[in-house]
Amino acid sequence: MSYELTGKIKVIQDPQTFGSGFTKREMVVTVEDGKYPQDINLEFVQDKVSLLDALQIGQEVTVSFNIRGREHNGRYYNNLQGWKIQAAQSENNADYADYEQQASYSNHNPFDQDDVPF
Disulfide-capable partner of 79 in 6, 64, 68, 72 (CB 3.0 to 4.6 Å)? Predict the structure, then answer.
């Protein structure tokens, strides 16, 4: 089952490679939750580690992840394992893109100004 969360990147850890060849990289995303924002730790493993390379602290992102659980010595552990990240488009960029599109339509006049309509 897949889940999504949207928030701002608070921490991006360096990749960790273990003796078995297993690689993981963790990040923390702050999610607004009313009065008490939540800092959510997510891990990316193996080929998904590189998804964090182009991201920056403070950037708004939407992360798709799966919940993973395991037992070790009678204790149970859960991990949020990310598999997709989308950088949120800032409102300023979205507004500018809309403005550019409207401007291109307003500059296009399908009628010849010298042509008489009657």
Answer: 68
Instruction: Please give the structure tokens belonging to residue 63.
Output: 């992360």
Tokens of 112: 């010849």
Q: Which residue has the tokens 């080929």?
A: 47
Residue 69: CB partners within 8 Å, gap ≥ 6? 76, 77, 78, 79
- Pairwise CA distance, residues 42 & 80, whole Å: 5
Cα–Cα nearest to 58, from 7, 109, 118, 116? 7
Tell me, yes or no, if the pTM score tops 0.85: no
**Per-residue b or e along 59-79, where b marks 16 or more CB atoms closer than 10 Å to that residue's CB:** eebebebeeeeeeeeeeeeeb
- For the chain, domains (ranges, CATH) are 2-107 (2.40.50.140)
